[in-house]
Amino acid sequence: MPITETEKIWMNGELVPWHEAKIHVLTHGLHYGSGVFEGIRAYETDGGPAIFRLDDHIRRLFDSAKIFLMKIPYTQSELIEASKAVVRENNLDSCYMRPIVYLGYGEMGLNPLFCSVSVAIAAWPWGAYLGDEGMRNGIRLKISSWQRHDPNALPPAAKGTGMYINSSMAKVEAVNAGYDEAILLSPQGYVSECTGENLFVIKKGKMFTPPTSAGALEGITQSSVIRIAKDLGYEVSIENLLRSDLYTADEIFLCGTAAEVVPVSSVDDRIAGDGKPGPMTKAIQSKYFDAVRGRLDTYKDWITYVR
Ligand code: PPE
Protein backbone atom coordinates (compact mmCIF):
# COMPACT_ATOMS: atom_id res chain seq x y z
CA MET A 1 0.00 0.00 0.00
CA PRO A 2 1.56 3.34 -1.00
CA ILE A 3 2.26 5.60 1.95
CA THR A 4 0.62 9.01 2.21
CA GLU A 5 3.28 11.49 3.24
CA THR A 6 2.66 13.84 6.12
CA GLU A 7 4.79 16.75 7.30
CA LYS A 8 6.78 15.67 10.32
CA ILE A 9 8.21 12.60 11.98
CA TRP A 10 9.37 12.48 15.58
CA MET A 11 12.94 11.20 15.59
CA ASN A 12 15.09 10.89 18.70
CA GLY A 13 13.40 13.73 20.52
CA GLU A 14 12.71 16.13 17.65
CA LEU A 15 10.03 16.63 15.03
CA VAL A 16 11.89 16.57 11.71
CA PRO A 17 10.54 17.11 8.17
CA TRP A 18 9.24 13.86 6.62
CA HIS A 19 12.04 13.61 4.04
CA GLU A 20 14.76 14.25 6.59
CA ALA A 21 13.81 11.27 8.77
CA LYS A 22 16.68 9.17 7.41
CA ILE A 23 19.07 6.51 8.63
CA HIS A 24 22.51 5.29 7.53
CA VAL A 25 22.71 2.15 5.37
CA LEU A 26 24.87 0.49 8.03
CA THR A 27 22.18 0.83 10.70
CA HIS A 28 22.18 -2.33 12.83
CA GLY A 29 18.39 -2.69 12.65
CA LEU A 30 18.48 -2.82 8.86
CA HIS A 31 20.99 -5.67 8.79
CA TYR A 32 19.74 -7.85 11.62
CA GLY A 33 16.09 -6.87 12.09
CA SER A 34 16.98 -5.60 15.54
CA GLY A 35 14.04 -3.38 16.25
CA VAL A 36 10.65 -3.36 17.92
CA PHE A 37 7.59 -1.44 16.83
CA GLU A 38 3.93 -0.67 17.38
CA GLY A 39 0.97 0.05 15.17
CA ILE A 40 -1.53 2.49 16.68
CA ARG A 41 -4.53 4.27 15.26
CA ALA A 42 -5.99 7.68 15.99
CA TYR A 43 -9.60 8.45 15.12
CA GLU A 44 -11.68 11.55 14.69
CA THR A 45 -13.96 12.11 17.69
CA ASP A 46 -16.22 14.91 18.92
CA GLY A 47 -13.30 16.08 21.08
CA GLY A 48 -10.89 16.20 18.13
CA PRO A 49 -8.41 13.48 17.16
CA ALA A 50 -7.95 10.79 19.80
CA ILE A 51 -5.45 7.94 19.95
CA PHE A 52 -6.88 4.51 20.70
CA ARG A 53 -5.31 2.64 23.64
CA LEU A 54 -2.11 4.67 23.44
CA ASP A 55 -0.85 3.74 26.93
CA ASP A 56 -1.30 0.02 26.22
CA HIS A 57 0.61 0.24 22.94
CA ILE A 58 3.49 2.15 24.50
CA ARG A 59 3.56 -0.35 27.36
CA ARG A 60 3.81 -3.21 24.85
CA LEU A 61 6.60 -1.37 22.98
CA PHE A 62 8.59 -1.28 26.22
CA ASP A 63 7.84 -4.94 26.91
CA SER A 64 9.03 -5.88 23.40
CA ALA A 65 12.24 -3.92 23.93
CA LYS A 66 12.77 -5.54 27.32
CA ILE A 67 12.51 -9.03 25.80
CA PHE A 68 15.38 -8.11 23.44
CA LEU A 69 17.38 -6.37 26.21
CA MET A 70 17.01 -3.10 24.32
CA LYS A 71 17.01 -0.04 26.54
CA ILE A 72 14.73 2.72 25.27
CA PRO A 73 16.33 6.09 26.07
CA TYR A 74 12.94 7.68 26.87
CA THR A 75 10.24 7.06 29.43
CA GLN A 76 6.80 5.73 28.56
CA SER A 77 5.25 9.10 29.33
CA GLU A 78 7.73 10.87 27.04
CA LEU A 79 6.74 8.60 24.16
CA ILE A 80 3.05 9.06 24.96
CA GLU A 81 3.50 12.84 24.73
CA ALA A 82 5.58 12.47 21.55
CA SER A 83 2.83 10.35 19.95
CA LYS A 84 0.24 13.00 20.72
CA ALA A 85 2.52 15.68 19.29
CA VAL A 86 2.95 13.77 16.02
CA VAL A 87 -0.82 13.65 15.41
CA ARG A 88 -1.28 17.27 16.51
CA GLU A 89 1.64 18.78 14.58
CA ASN A 90 0.68 16.99 11.37
CA ASN A 91 -2.91 18.24 11.72
CA LEU A 92 -4.26 14.72 11.29
CA ASP A 93 -7.89 13.92 12.14
CA SER A 94 -7.35 10.20 11.91
CA CYS A 95 -4.23 8.21 11.12
CA TYR A 96 -2.12 5.13 11.61
CA MET A 97 0.94 5.61 13.80
CA ARG A 98 4.18 3.72 13.74
CA PRO A 99 6.52 4.05 16.72
CA ILE A 100 9.74 2.15 16.09
CA VAL A 101 12.75 1.50 18.31
CA TYR A 102 15.83 0.18 16.55
CA LEU A 103 19.50 -0.40 17.05
CA GLY A 104 21.31 2.38 15.29
CA TYR A 105 24.50 3.12 13.41
CA GLY A 106 27.95 2.64 14.92
CA GLU A 107 28.31 -1.04 15.76
CA MET A 108 28.13 -4.16 13.63
CA GLY A 109 28.04 -7.82 14.47
CA LEU A 110 25.60 -9.86 16.46
CA ASN A 111 26.30 -8.57 19.93
CA PRO A 112 23.84 -5.69 20.16
CA LEU A 113 24.68 -4.60 23.69
CA PHE A 114 26.89 -1.66 22.64
CA CYS A 115 24.57 -0.32 19.96
CA SER A 116 22.82 3.01 20.24
CA VAL A 117 19.03 2.78 20.48
CA SER A 118 17.02 5.10 18.24
CA VAL A 119 13.34 5.91 18.42
CA ALA A 120 11.02 7.34 15.79
CA ILE A 121 7.26 7.91 15.58
CA ALA A 122 5.58 8.51 12.24
CA ALA A 123 1.90 8.97 11.39
CA TRP A 124 -0.02 8.98 8.14
CA PRO A 125 -3.61 8.49 6.96
CA TRP A 126 -4.34 4.80 6.32
CA GLY A 127 -7.69 3.41 5.16
CA ALA A 128 -9.09 -0.12 5.54
CA TYR A 129 -5.99 -2.34 5.76
CA LEU A 130 -7.67 -5.33 4.13
CA GLY A 131 -9.83 -3.26 1.79
CA ASP A 132 -13.29 -1.70 2.04
CA GLU A 133 -14.90 -4.63 0.24
CA GLY A 134 -13.39 -7.13 2.73
CA MET A 135 -14.46 -4.98 5.66
CA ARG A 136 -18.08 -5.10 4.45
CA ASN A 137 -18.43 -8.58 2.98
CA GLY A 138 -15.64 -10.68 4.44
CA ILE A 139 -12.25 -11.91 3.27
CA ARG A 140 -10.94 -15.29 2.11
CA LEU A 141 -8.28 -16.92 4.24
CA LYS A 142 -5.81 -19.69 3.58
CA ILE A 143 -3.79 -21.69 6.06
CA SER A 144 -0.15 -21.05 5.33
CA SER A 145 2.52 -23.65 4.71
CA TRP A 146 4.71 -21.38 6.89
CA GLN A 147 4.42 -21.90 10.64
CA ARG A 148 4.30 -19.26 13.35
CA HIS A 149 7.56 -18.89 15.29
CA ASP A 150 8.44 -21.44 17.88
CA PRO A 151 8.50 -19.36 21.12
CA ASN A 152 12.02 -20.57 21.81
CA ALA A 153 13.22 -19.48 18.38
CA LEU A 154 11.59 -16.04 18.34
CA PRO A 155 9.38 -14.73 21.16
CA PRO A 156 5.87 -14.07 19.76
CA ALA A 157 5.14 -11.69 22.66
CA ALA A 158 7.67 -9.25 21.20
CA LYS A 159 6.72 -7.16 18.20
CA GLY A 160 10.20 -7.44 16.72
CA THR A 161 10.82 -5.97 13.26
CA GLY A 162 12.90 -8.90 11.96
CA MET A 163 10.23 -11.38 13.01
CA TYR A 164 7.87 -10.04 10.36
CA ILE A 165 9.71 -11.81 7.51
CA ASN A 166 7.66 -14.81 8.68
CA SER A 167 4.40 -12.86 8.28
CA SER A 168 5.51 -11.46 4.90
CA MET A 169 6.25 -14.90 3.48
CA ALA A 170 2.86 -16.20 4.61
CA LYS A 171 1.10 -13.12 3.20
CA VAL A 172 2.79 -13.44 -0.19
CA GLU A 173 1.98 -17.13 -0.39
CA ALA A 174 -1.71 -16.49 0.36
CA VAL A 175 -2.05 -13.52 -1.99
CA ASN A 176 -0.27 -15.35 -4.84
CA ALA A 177 -2.69 -18.23 -4.36
CA GLY A 178 -5.63 -15.81 -4.75
CA TYR A 179 -6.58 -15.37 -1.07
CA ASP A 180 -6.71 -12.20 0.99
CA GLU A 181 -4.83 -13.26 4.09
CA ALA A 182 -2.99 -16.21 5.67
CA ILE A 183 -3.51 -18.08 8.92
CA LEU A 184 -0.41 -19.47 10.57
CA LEU A 185 -0.40 -22.58 12.73
CA SER A 186 1.94 -23.06 15.67
CA PRO A 187 4.74 -25.65 15.45
CA GLN A 188 2.40 -27.89 17.49
CA GLY A 189 -0.29 -27.54 14.83
CA TYR A 190 -2.70 -25.25 16.68
CA VAL A 191 -4.23 -22.17 15.09
CA SER A 192 -2.08 -19.18 15.98
CA GLU A 193 -3.04 -15.97 14.18
CA CYS A 194 -2.94 -14.18 10.84
CA THR A 195 0.05 -12.27 9.47
CA GLY A 196 -0.87 -9.10 11.34
CA GLU A 197 -4.13 -9.90 13.11
CA ASN A 198 -5.59 -12.10 15.83
CA LEU A 199 -8.39 -14.48 15.00
CA PHE A 200 -11.80 -15.18 16.56
CA VAL A 201 -14.01 -18.19 15.85
CA ILE A 202 -17.70 -18.36 16.77
CA LYS A 203 -19.49 -21.65 17.16
CA LYS A 204 -22.93 -22.25 18.67
CA GLY A 205 -22.98 -18.70 20.00
CA LYS A 206 -19.67 -18.96 21.83
CA MET A 207 -16.46 -17.13 20.91
CA PHE A 208 -12.98 -18.62 20.86
CA THR A 209 -9.55 -17.08 20.29
CA PRO A 210 -6.12 -18.77 20.45
CA PRO A 211 -3.81 -18.19 23.44
CA THR A 212 -0.37 -16.57 23.29
CA SER A 213 1.08 -20.04 23.90
CA ALA A 214 0.00 -20.90 20.33
CA GLY A 215 2.36 -18.15 19.13
CA ALA A 216 -0.15 -15.33 18.82
CA LEU A 217 0.72 -11.77 19.74
CA GLU A 218 -1.29 -10.59 22.74
CA GLY A 219 -3.36 -8.25 20.62
CA ILE A 220 -4.66 -5.00 22.01
CA THR A 221 -7.60 -5.12 19.60
CA GLN A 222 -8.14 -8.72 20.69
CA SER A 223 -8.47 -7.55 24.27
CA SER A 224 -10.81 -4.70 23.22
CA VAL A 225 -12.94 -7.23 21.36
CA ILE A 226 -13.06 -9.53 24.40
CA ARG A 227 -14.29 -6.70 26.62
CA ILE A 228 -16.88 -5.58 24.05
CA ALA A 229 -18.05 -9.18 23.52
CA LYS A 230 -18.48 -9.77 27.25
CA ASP A 231 -20.39 -6.49 27.58
CA LEU A 232 -22.69 -7.73 24.80
CA GLY A 233 -23.28 -10.85 26.89
CA TYR A 234 -21.23 -13.21 24.74
CA GLU A 235 -19.11 -15.96 26.24
CA VAL A 236 -15.43 -15.82 25.23
CA SER A 237 -12.88 -18.54 25.73
CA ILE A 238 -9.13 -18.32 25.09
CA GLU A 239 -8.16 -21.80 24.01
CA ASN A 240 -6.28 -23.86 21.46
CA LEU A 241 -8.07 -24.39 18.16
CA LEU A 242 -7.49 -26.89 15.39
CA ARG A 243 -7.77 -26.09 11.70
CA SER A 244 -11.00 -28.11 11.57
CA ASP A 245 -12.49 -25.67 14.11
CA LEU A 246 -12.07 -23.03 11.43
CA TYR A 247 -13.71 -25.21 8.79
CA THR A 248 -16.85 -25.79 10.88
CA ALA A 249 -17.22 -22.33 12.45
CA ASP A 250 -20.47 -20.37 12.24
CA GLU A 251 -18.61 -17.07 12.09
CA ILE A 252 -14.96 -16.04 11.94
CA PHE A 253 -13.39 -12.59 12.12
CA LEU A 254 -9.93 -11.21 12.54
CA CYS A 255 -8.81 -8.11 14.38
CA GLY A 256 -5.82 -5.86 14.73
CA THR A 257 -5.01 -2.18 14.94
CA ALA A 258 -4.37 -1.76 11.22
CA ALA A 259 -7.04 -4.27 10.11
CA GLU A 260 -9.62 -3.26 12.76
CA VAL A 261 -12.44 -5.88 12.86
CA VAL A 262 -12.81 -7.80 9.59
CA PRO A 263 -15.28 -10.61 8.82
CA VAL A 264 -13.99 -13.80 7.22
CA SER A 265 -16.06 -15.45 4.47
CA SER A 266 -14.05 -18.66 4.07
CA VAL A 267 -10.99 -20.60 5.21
CA ASP A 268 -9.32 -22.90 2.66
CA ASP A 269 -12.52 -22.61 0.60
CA ARG A 270 -14.74 -23.88 3.44
CA ILE A 271 -17.45 -21.22 3.71
CA ALA A 272 -17.87 -19.73 7.19
CA GLY A 273 -21.58 -19.91 8.09
CA ASP A 274 -23.46 -18.65 5.04
CA GLY A 275 -20.41 -16.75 3.79
CA LYS A 276 -21.73 -13.37 4.90
CA PRO A 277 -20.66 -11.46 8.02
CA GLY A 278 -22.58 -13.08 10.88
CA PRO A 279 -24.69 -11.31 13.53
CA MET A 280 -22.14 -11.53 16.37
CA THR A 281 -19.32 -10.33 14.11
CA LYS A 282 -21.44 -7.40 12.97
CA ALA A 283 -22.45 -6.48 16.52
CA ILE A 284 -18.82 -6.46 17.67
CA GLN A 285 -17.60 -4.62 14.58
CA SER A 286 -20.16 -1.88 15.07
CA LYS A 287 -19.39 -1.43 18.81
CA TYR A 288 -15.67 -1.38 18.04
CA PHE A 289 -16.05 1.41 15.49
CA ASP A 290 -18.15 3.40 17.95
CA ALA A 291 -15.64 2.82 20.76
CA VAL A 292 -12.59 3.98 18.78
CA ARG A 293 -14.47 7.12 17.75
CA GLY A 294 -15.20 7.95 21.38
CA ARG A 295 -18.96 7.52 20.97
CA LEU A 296 -19.42 5.13 23.89
CA ASP A 297 -18.95 6.37 27.43
CA THR A 298 -18.16 2.87 28.72
CA TYR A 299 -14.99 2.77 26.62
CA LYS A 300 -13.83 6.37 27.10
CA ASP A 301 -10.90 5.05 29.16
CA TRP A 302 -9.46 3.69 25.90
CA ILE A 303 -9.01 7.02 24.16
CA THR A 304 -6.45 9.78 24.57
CA TYR A 305 -7.26 13.16 23.08
CA VAL A 306 -4.29 14.79 21.39
CA ARG A 307 -5.32 18.36 22.17
N1 PPE B 1 -0.73 -10.38 15.43
C1 PPE B 1 0.29 -9.85 14.72
C2 PPE B 1 1.34 -10.75 14.19
C3 PPE B 1 0.34 -8.47 14.52
O1 PPE B 1 1.33 -7.94 13.84
C4 PPE B 1 -0.70 -7.67 15.03
C5 PPE B 1 -0.68 -6.20 14.80
C6 PPE B 1 -1.75 -8.27 15.76
C7 PPE B 1 -1.72 -9.63 15.94
C8 PPE B 1 -2.85 -7.49 16.39
O2 PPE B 1 -2.36 -6.72 17.45
P1 PPE B 1 -3.03 -5.36 17.92
O3 PPE B 1 -2.71 -4.35 16.88
O4 PPE B 1 -2.41 -5.08 19.21
O5 PPE B 1 -4.48 -5.61 18.01
N2 PPE B 1 -0.16 -5.79 13.54
C9 PPE B 1 0.25 -4.44 13.34
C10 PPE B 1 1.12 -4.32 12.11
C11 PPE B 1 0.47 -4.44 10.78
C12 PPE B 1 1.43 -4.07 9.67
O6 PPE B 1 1.03 -4.17 8.50
O7 PPE B 1 2.55 -3.65 9.91
C13 PPE B 1 -0.93 -3.48 13.33
O8 PPE B 1 -2.08 -3.90 13.19
O9 PPE B 1 -0.69 -2.30 13.47
Write out key terms for the chains shown.
single chain, alpha+beta, D-amino Acid Aminotransferase, Chain A, domain 1, D-amino Acid Aminotransferase, Chain A, domain 2, 2 domains, eight-stranded antiparallel sheet, 8 helices, binds ligand PPE
Ligands: ligand PPE
- Count of helical stretches: 8
Mean pLDDT across every amino acid position: 97
Morphology: globular
The span between the termini is 29 Å
Report the sheet with the most strands, covering strand number, pairing sense and barrel closure. 9 strands, mixed
Residue stretches low in confidence (pLDDT < 50, at least 5 long) are none
The total beta strand count reads 17
- List the quaternary state of the chains: single chain
Radius of gyration: 19 Å
The string of secondary-structure elements, in order, is EEHEEEHHEEHEHEEEEHEHEEEHE
CATH architecture of the largest domain: Alpha-Beta Barrel
What's the CATH class label of the largest domain? Alpha Beta
Fraction of residues in helix: 25-40%
Number of domains: 2
- Content-based structural category: alpha+beta
CATH topology of the largest domain: D-amino Acid Aminotransferase, Chain A, domain 2
The CATH superfamily of the largest domain bears the name D-amino Acid Aminotransferase, subunit A, domain 2
What fraction of the residues are assigned to beta strands by DSSP? Answer: 25-35%
